[in-house]
Specification:
Helix 2 packs parallel to helix 7, helix 5 runs antiparallel to helix 6 (121-138) and helix 9 (172-185) crosses helix 10. The chain has 247 residues and is mainly alpha-helical. The chain has helices at 2-32, 49-68, 71-78, 82-89, 92-117, 121-138, 140-152, 154-166, 172-185, 194-206, 208-219, 229-245. The protein has a domain at 100-245: Tetracycline Repressor, domain 2. The protein is built from 12 helices and no strands. The longest helix is centred in the first third of the chain and has 31 residues, at 2-32.
């Protein structure tokens, strides 16, 4: 009987020891993860937290790029606990992709609407410049973020953009390609190769906010803040693209 009691006591003690050891291991894992303890549910005041995080993340990615961005800085700028970043987005990679999706959610519906209206090249050349130019001036951080990644990891970023665009149906880039190819074979465009047309069109449509400050400095003339500049730029782009593309 005494032996049985001792065995029972020893078993209970061993179970407690294993349980305690497991708790200690969990504590060490938490310390190794720099005290990031993911909440099981968001706090009551968190409905605006994801948007604050995304806004802060956009600023961080636009300045430091995907590799250089730090979750701690994003949390500080968003004024949230760092654990919430992982609760909502799991990782920095997922957070970056969500910022990308937000950018596309602004511009893609406009592109889809423009493509449904464009029955001939002239229509498309009049509809695209306002969409892209207004987007780049109203959301310059998205352009900076994308350009940084295209310089650092062009293949990775290009694939990421393709996947993001292809999540929309119809995919605007593929629809544009289809239209350009059709119009090219019909002789409605000077250049029949959609690839060459895209390479000719995209730089002036996307890069104005990046190049404009350089032109200001070189010409010693301030024009970006002019109330008429955006509309002047759109009108000039339409004229330029029509002259270059239409026979």
């Amino acid at each position: 009987m005494t032996n049985i009691i001792l065995i029972v006591i020893l078993t209970i003690w061993l179970n407690q020891l294993v349980k305690f050891s497991g708790q200690e291991m969990n504590k060490k894992e938490i310390i190794m993860k720099k005290n990031i303890i993911l909440p099981s549910s968001p706090p009551a005041s968190s409905p605006s937290s994801p948007q604050r995080i995304l806004h802060a993340a956009l600023k961080e990615f636009a300045i430091h790029g995907r590799e250089g961005a730090r979750m701690a800085r994003i949390a500080m700028q968003a004024k949230v606990n760092k654990a919430l970043l992982f609760y909502y987005f799991s990782s920095k990679e997922n957070l970056f992709q969500e910022v990308m999706r937000q950018a596309l959610s602004i511009v893609v519906p406009q592109l889809q609407q423009a493509l449904s209206k464009a029955q001939k090249p002239k229509d498309l050349l009049e509809l695209l410049p306002p969409i892209y130019t207004q987007f780049t001036f109203q959301h310059p951080d998205y352009i900076r973020m994308i350009l940084l990644e295209l310089v650092r990891e062009p293949q990775v970023m290009a694939q990421m953009m393709a996947e993001a665009f292809n999540s929309y149906q119809p995919s605007p880039p593929l629809e544009i390609k289809k239209k350009l190819k059709k119009w090219g074979t019909q002789g409605l465009l000077k250049e029949s190769d959609p690839v060459q047309l895209a390479l000719n069109f995209l730089p002036p449509l996307l890069f104005t906010p990046i190049i404009a400050p350089v032109v200001e400095a070189l010409f010693q003339e301030k024009f970006i803040d002019s109330s008429q500049f955006l509309q002047q730029r759109i009108a000039s782009l339409i004229k330029f693209l029509k002259h270059g593309a239409l026979p």
